[in-house]
């Protein structure tokens, strides 16, 4: 089987390189890990064995992440929702309405969000050796601390991307192949043609802020999780954790110590292929459940609206409300938000990406000030129930309560939102922990952009 023809899809003005291998009835999108995004060079080495194996019964869709490999170089590293947009653009370009998403290693976090956010486009999810959080928490103790990550990145300064550095990374990711000269040469070419030293560091910094653990229960599609027993890059406990929290997920423990999926790939294909073909043969491929989705909810309302009404009178207040509503609806269109409900001077909207939701809230806050009004805004990302176009569930209640904690001109978000927008360029001030009325436990909140937070920026509780 020859290497696929390199083609390009356009996503937000950026060219995303992609290729298609095989002509089976199922569509499978492969999301590679780390910076390994040059599928053209990957085809020259043992990665081709995996491509051939997966394409024997499916149409395998390969792509290079934006900023890496053969895709357009971009300013900075894209956030997770932008990368999800790129997958949809590639699927649209090849005419794929629904596909299995294979998220390997670093590519798994984005694949988790994609499956939870777009169940109508996801037939199944496969996770291989996937870290769910890149920073340690009480719930997820297998990740390094932020301080350990910073020290590691500092130790790589000046050598990142060199042949010696590449050899060292190969020993860590695929130790059973590191002594083979031909493999080392191919590996160096693959890594060096995928990303520059600066891009490698930027990707690592972005990843160090991501945590998708909360999204696992929202996944409704059939899921298979795999990990090798002795994998020292991503410990097997991490993937067991994912399988335990994704409803109905299956977990397979594979023999071996290599993290790299390109090593002994027939071992991996041997479990993935029957999982996917079984769904196809049982006519479960197009079984879509969209009654629950992962979404970011936004709540806004006007601060001191009663006092403003008394100040300007009924007629002027109606004009201000009309202008306020029109401004918010324009921003919802601009940032791909969906209006769910409007009551008095408050808005409830949903988004398929938290960074878009935050920028929409900021634009609303800036815009209404020109009308002489001030709003408070709150956001939360979580699993929402969808009934007849309406959204409900605990995530909606949390979002509403987060908004109540905001002050005039503030955009306040839950820690869940903050953990998903790494790479977006957004900055936050820690508001500390708060008890949200009617919601169990304490919730850590953040103010978006301290410049908007006034005297509250950085205030703890």
Quick overview:
The protein folds into 2 domains: 275 residues, Rossmann fold (3-Layer(aba) Sandwich); 165 residues, Alpha-Beta Plaits.
Task: Characterise the protein shown here.
The chain is an alpha/beta fold. It has 2 domains: about 5-280, Rossmann fold, CATH 3.40.50; about 290-455, Alpha-Beta Plaits, CATH 3.30.70.1230. The chain has helices at about 40, 45-55, 80-95, 105-115, 145-155, 165-175, 180-195, 195-205, 235-245, 265-280, 305-310, 315-335, 355-370, 395-405, 415-420; strands at about 5-10, 15-20, 25-30, 60-65, 100-105, 120-130, 225-230, 250-255, 290-300, 340-345, 345-350, 375-385, 390, 410-415, 430-435, 440-450. The strands form 2 sheets. It has an 8-stranded mixed sheet with strand order 1-2-4-3-5-6-7-8, with helices on both faces. Strands 9, 10, 11, 12, 13, 14, 15 and 16 form an 8-stranded mixed sheet that branches. Helix 3 crosses helix 4. It is globular and about 80 Å long.
How many domain units? 2
Looking at this structure, what is the CATH superfamily of the largest domain? Alpha/Beta hydrolase fold, catalytic domain
In which order are the strands of the major sheet placed?
A: 1-2-4-3-5-6-7-8
Largest sheet: 8 strands, mixed
CATH topology group of the largest domain: Rossmann fold
Helix content: 25-40%
Low-confidence stretches: 452-461
Q: How many runs of DSSP E, i.e. beta strands? A: 16
Rg estimate, integer Å: 23 Å
Proportion of residues in extended strands: 15-25%
What is the CA-CA span between the terminal residues?
A: 61 Å
Average pLDDT level: 93
Q: Please report the first level of CATH classification, the CATH class of the largest domain.
A: Alpha Beta
Number of helical segments with 4 or more residues: 15
What structural class do you assign from the helix and strand content?
alpha/beta
Looking at the structure, what is the overall shape? globular
Q: How does CATH name the architecture of the largest domain?
A: 3-Layer(aba) Sandwich
């Amino acid at each position: 089987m020859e290497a696929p023809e390199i083609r390009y899809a356009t996503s937000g003005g950026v060219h995303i390189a992609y290729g298609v291998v095989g002509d089976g009835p199922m569509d499978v999108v492969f999301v590679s890990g780390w910076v390994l995004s040059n599928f053209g060079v990957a085809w020259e080495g043992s990665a081709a064995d995996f491509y051939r194996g997966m394409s024997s019964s499916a149409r395998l869709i390969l792509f290079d992440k934006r900023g890496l490999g053969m895709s357009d170089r971009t300013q900075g590293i894209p956030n997770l929702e932008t990368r999800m947009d790129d997958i949809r653009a590639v699927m649209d370009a090849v005419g794929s309405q629904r596909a299995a998403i294979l998220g390997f290693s670093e590519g798994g976090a984005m694949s988790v969000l994609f499956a939870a956010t777009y169940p109508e486009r996801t037939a199944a999810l496969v996770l291989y050796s996937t870290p769910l959080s890149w920073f340690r928490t009480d719930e997820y103790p297998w990740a390094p601390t932020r301080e350990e990550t910073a020290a590691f990145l500092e130790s790589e300064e000046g050598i990142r991307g060199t042949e010696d550095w590449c050899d060292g990374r190969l020993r860590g990711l695929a130790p059973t192949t590191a002594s083979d000269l031909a493999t080392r040469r191919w590996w160096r070419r693959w890594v060096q043609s995928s990303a520059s030293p600066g891009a490698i560091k930027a990707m690592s910094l972005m990843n160090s802020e991501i945590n998708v653990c909360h999204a696992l229960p929202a996944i409704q599609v059939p899921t298979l999780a795999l990990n090798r027993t002795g994998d020292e890059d991503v410990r097997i406990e991490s993937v067991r954790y994912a399988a335990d929290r994704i409803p109905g997920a299956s977990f397979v423990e594979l023999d071996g110590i290599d993290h790299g999926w390109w090593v002994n790939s027939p071992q991996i294909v041997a479990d993935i292929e029957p999982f996917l073909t079984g769904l196809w043969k049982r006519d479960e491929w197009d079984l879509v459940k969209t009654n629950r989705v992962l979404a970011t909810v936004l709540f806004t309302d006007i601060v001191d609206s009663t006092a403003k009404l008394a100040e300007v009178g009924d007629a002027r207040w109606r004009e201000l409300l009309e202008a306020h509503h029109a401004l918010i609806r324009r921003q919802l269109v601009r940032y791909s938000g969906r209006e769910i409900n409007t009551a008095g001077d408050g808005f409830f909207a949903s988004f398929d990406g938290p960074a878009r939701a935050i920028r929409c809230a900021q634009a609303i806050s800036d815009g209404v000030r020109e009308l002489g009004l001030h709003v408070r805004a709150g956001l939360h990302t979580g699993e929402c129930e969808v009934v007849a176009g309406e959204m409900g569930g605990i995530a909606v209640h949390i979002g509403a309560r987060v908004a109540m904690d905001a002050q005039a001109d503030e955009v306040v978000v839950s820690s869940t939102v903050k953990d998903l927008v790494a790479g977006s360029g957004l900055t936050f001030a820690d508001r500390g922990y708060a008890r949200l009325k009617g919601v169990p436990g304490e919730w850590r909140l953040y103010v978006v952009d301290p410049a908007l937070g006034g005297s509250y920026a950085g205030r703890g509780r």
